[in-house]
Write a structure and sequence with these properties.
The chain is an alpha/beta fold. The chain has 12 helices and 15 strands. The chain binds nicotinamide-adenine-dinucleotide (NAD).
């Protein structure tokens, strides 16, 4: 893709971003935009009545509109960052692509494969960039595991077990997360992070076999075995724990001659046991602060959210399309989780 075709000449100017959906994740992305040099938040789209006040309260003085189309009538935008409930993702990707905007869209790409495919075809037809918020590919501890696997230091990876457990989420606008037809439950909304990481690290499994627990017509806790030729892989994801339980992400990776384990509830979070040595904390890179911004100089709590957006904007600045967490990769993760849901529903393994 030529530079002219991209229409991006941002090496010397700000990239202007509009965030669509200013809830939990939209506000997170807004904080990251503030911390990223050369990125300017120029618009917020949301329908909830208090959105303008909330934006000001958080220190964002930008245009606010009830829809992307309305915003684009008056505001010059380069990037549309979609943080809407999942059932709205594909339609807004299509609107943004047709307007020639580059797109960052939160995960999951869509609820259904057909909607995801339609959105990707429009993105590809218009030649705009798209990255999906599969942030675990950018999460420091998971990146450290990826580096350790590639280093060969512990020998071959022989088994991998991942967990993502949470209390029932109570924060989403109109409680959309608990509507099966809007989120497909924890299976798609939460557990997709680990499925996506498995695909990123190990490629596509031959088959999946899942069991779990359902609430209100959606899988609120899923346990999946991923069938590979030479490595045992399993992942658990659920949000049906009691309200005060909190949130945990964790993994245990066993190698021929080592183990790497991560637990977000521990401090330090990441450990290595190498050969006959003691289990020790494994140092890893945290995001480096690029500008002070409104974060007060501390962005380590933004972790993978900072890393994924820093990567996205750097690709745009270099006139490149993102190659990590692409639309097509996110489609594969969606396809795999839908197979897991089918497996749990039908009580049988599903080949991929
Ligand atoms: N990457 C992650 O770790 C992570 C974490 C949480 C959520 N997410 C994803 O981010 C997306 C948003 O989730 P959230 O937790 O921020 O939800 P949320 O309910 O907190 O925010 C959604 C926002 O969208 C707004 N909205 C709803 N319909 C709208 C419409 N038609 N037009 C304009 N605005 C509208 C709501 O008013 C709300 O402010 C979801 O796809 C979710 O899966 C990702």
């Amino acid at each position: 893709m030529s530079e002219a075709a991209w229409g991006l000449h941002h090496a010397v100017m700000n990239i202007r971003t509009a965030i669509v959906g200013f809830g939990f994740m939209g506000q997170m992305h807004a904080r990251v935009c503030q911390a990223l040099p050369g990125v300017e938040l120029v618009g917020i789209v949301d329908t909830f009545p208090g959105v303008e006040g909330r934006a000001v309260e958080l220190g964002f003085k930008t245009a606010v509109a009830p829809s992307l189309s309305v915003l684009l009538e008056t505001v010059d935008v380069d990037v549309v960052d979609i943080c809407l409930p999942t059932d709205l993702h594909s339609a807004v990707i299509i609107t943004a692509a047709r307007a020639g905007k580059h797109i960052f869209c939160e995960k999951p790409l869509a609820l259904e494969l057909a909607d995801a495919e339609e959105a990707l075809l429009e993105v590809e037809r218009k030649g705009v960039a798209l990255q999906v918020g599969q942030c675990i590919r950018f999460w420091p501890e998971y990146q450290a595991l990826e580096r350790f696997v590639k280093s060969g230091q512990g020998g071959k990876l022989v088994s991998l077990s991942l967990q993502r457990r949470a209390s029932r989420p109570a924060y989403s606008r109109d409680n959309w997360l608990h509507e099966a037809k809007r989120s497909k439950g924890a299976a798609l909304d939460l557990h997709i992070h680990d499925t996506d990481y498995i695909l990123h690290l190990l490629g596509r499994p031959k088959a999946v076999h899942s069991v779990g627990h359902q609430e209100k017509g959606a899988w609120s806790h899923l346990f999946t075995q991923y069938l590979f030729d030479d490595i045992a892989v399993t992942a658990e994801g659920g949000w049906d724990l009691p309200a005060q339980w909190g949130f945990q992400m964790a993994f245990q990776a066993v190698f021929e001659n080592a183990a790497v384990d991560f637990d977000s509830l521990s401090s330090p979070t990441l450990h290595l046991t190498l050969g006959e040595t003691k289990r020790e904390p494994l140092p890893f890179e945290k995001p480096q602060l690029a500008s002070a911004g409104a974060t007060g100089g501390n962005i380590s709590d933004l972790g993978g959210y900072y890393n994924e957006l820093a990567y996205f904007y750097e690709q745009l600045r270099q006139n490149r399309k993102p190659e990590i967490a692409t639309g097509r990769q996110a489609l594969e993760s969606l396809r795999t989780v839908l197979a897991e849901i089918q497996s749990a529903t039908e009580g049988r393994s599903i080949s991929l």
